[in-house]
Amino acid sequence: MNKGTACANGELAAIIENSESLIWAVDKDYRYTVYNTRYYRWLDAWGVQVALQDSALHPIFPEDVIEKWREWYDTALSGGVLKKEERYVGPLGESVVHDFHFTPITKCGHVYGVSCMATDVTSFRDTEEELRAARDRNLRAVKELIKDPLSLLKGS
């Protein structure tokens, strides 16, 4: 490996490790080629220990989950880009929302793997739901006031 390649690899590793997202990549056989520490810890929370070249289709998960992930990987392996937002119950029973991105990794126009990223958008989605619920409560209150216009005058 030449010095330029080593520096580039170090820079890429720093970028991957400094991300708040879960980042990993798989080859055409669904084996890990790279992952960041956040992804490793996320799997560890599920009780899954991984190493490079291990299968990304973990038998610890139910078959329907494995098939869903296989379809997601296959979309990118066939050249497509997949973006999915998924709410699920986390390993501690908590509600989690991840924004998943699956992108083909290509060389000379040939797909040889999938680059994957998952960003935790739980707090954003929860806040959005709280705001929507507050808006709905306010609209119901306004509708009640409009039903009886005199109540607006009585209240002032």
Task: Walk me through this protein's architecture.
- The chain has 156 residues and is of the alpha+beta class.
- It has two domains: 23-120, Beta-Lactamase (2-Layer Sandwich); 121-156.
- The protein is built from five helices and five strands.
- It has a five-stranded antiparallel beta sheet, with helices on both faces.
- The termini are far apart.
- 13% of the residues are buried.
Characteristics:
single chain; 156 residues; alpha+beta; Beta-Lactamase; 2 domains; 5-stranded antiparallel sheet
**What is the fold-level CATH name, i.e. the topology of the largest domain?**
Beta-Lactamase
CATH level-4 homologous superfamily of the largest domain: PAS domain
Strand content: 25-35%
Q: What does the main sheet amount to? A: 5 strands, antiparallel
CATH arch. level architecture of the largest domain: 2-Layer Sandwich
* Element pattern in H and E: HEEHHEEEHH
Q: Structural class of the secondary elements?
A: alpha+beta
What is the 3D shape? elongated
State the name of the first-level CATH class of the largest domain: Alpha Beta
Q: Helix and strand layout, with pairings?
A:
Layout: H1 3-17, E1 22-27, E2 32-35, H2 37-45, H3 63-77, E3 82-89, E4 95-107, E5 110-120, H4 122-147, H5 149-155
Summarize the structure.
The protein is built from 5 helices and 5 strands; from the N terminus they run αββααβββαα. The protein is α+β, with helices and mostly antiparallel strands and 156 residues long. Strands 2-1-5-4-3 form a 5-stranded antiparallel β-sheet, with helices on both faces.
